[in-house]
Amino acid sequence: MGSATADITGDDFPAVSGSMYTDYNGPLSSTFPIENRNFPVTTKAVKTHLERTKSLPFVKRISDFHLLLTLARFLDINADIPALTQCVHSQTAVPEGYQLLIESIANAGV
User: Fold this and answer.
1) How far apart are CA 32 and CA 102, in angstroms?
2) Is 19 helix (H, G, I), strand (E, B) or coil?
3) Is the pTM value of this prediction over 0.70?
4) Which one of 39, 45, 60, 83 has the fewest CB atoms closer than 10 angstroms to its CB?
5) Is residue 84 domain-resident?
């Protein structure tokens, strides 16, 4: 004899509504392109993103998870990225040196 099993229906799982995420008011945005094997994100995407968000404070302009992942390809993962993510987390001003580095990456045209 086999062991008894229970039938599982969709009613057994909580419903997740799309509106669940629309109430999010954290510091991160999600407008930067997502890295993909078939379509790698280039520095041109960084430039486009920075131009599109130029009316925002610099910390808001870099407060995008996928942008930070892209910047990690160019900046020191052990020093620069933690410093930038701390700025994003606390929403404090990004030091001018980092702003210059990020803008130079954007203008590299790769």
Assistant:
1) 14
2) helix
3) yes
4) 39
5) yes
